[in-house]
Amino acid sequence: MIDKFGREINYLRISVTDRCNLRCKYCMPEEGCGNLIPHSEILSFEEIIRVAEAAASIGIHKLRLTGGEPLVRHSIVDLVAGLNAIDGIDEIDITTNGIMLEEMAHDLKAAGLCRVNISLDTFDPEKFREITRGGDLQKVIRGIEAAEREGLTPVKINCVALGGFNDDEFEQFIELTKDRDITVRFIELMPIGSADVGEGYGYISDQDILKRFPELQPCEQELFSVSLDYHLPEAKGKVGFISALSHHFCGTCNKLRLTSDGKIKPCLHNNEEIDIKRAAREGTHEDIVRVLVESIDHKVARHRLNEGADPITRDMNKIGG
Ligand code: SAM
What we know:
single chain, alpha/beta, binds S-adenosylmethionine
């Protein structure tokens, strides 16, 4: 479907849970996931599949599962298989912290998963424990290796650029792309939800990083990509920049987001949400399509995050970044 600004909407990001097995400082408040959404409010697999079927019928062909941490949702492999069976869906990816990936990568691939994005902000076990409030770095490293072995490639590593925390490790991240089919993507810290994003960490823009690594050369941009991609000379992988603040990717935004409690967010960076749970629970296929079409109609031309717009109130773990 084409929205009123001429953008083709072909991608649905599905948050399957607000629960997470890490507590990243910039993502959620110290006390954890905050008020957890009760299980009865969370969409069941059947309801998610009904929404995805309706989405596929209006031209959405790519899905991404996220969270919270999608791999903590019980029987997530069955959901991947169910989504993979929908006519018109030709790509299913997952964004994960990688903690449970080593044990699940094989079954996820067999169920139809195409690729994984893995979040990793540091290679130092102590710093990893600090930023995630207790996580085990080695599990993530083994998760990345398992994803490569299973062909869930190219693996994309999402690194939130945090001044005073991981800016001394950027070179190590970039080096990873030399010999491996890995895309490292630096994400600008975004002011979202109740996490204290500013506390102790400096904002770093993509330009700050590019200035430090003049050897990075621009790649041909992928259609609809939210990252500006570069590569080292002769490198196998890529280095991308996701810069929601310093650049707008809104002109090529092709997404809708479905939260785990059944709301459609037409735009990550504003607070509007449209209920689709009632239609998914009690309505017909046409009712669900109607909500999706209305949501596409509500997509804004661009976000105003850095122009004094109201802050985003929903925590990132309840949106699924
Ligand atoms: N648990 C999964 C994971 O860790 O990838 C999926 C959910 S997590 C909310 C998705 C992505 O959002 C992660 O890459 C995380 O680093 C990013 N993220 C969370 N809070 C952010 C913030 N305030 N600014 C920028 N990125 C953020």
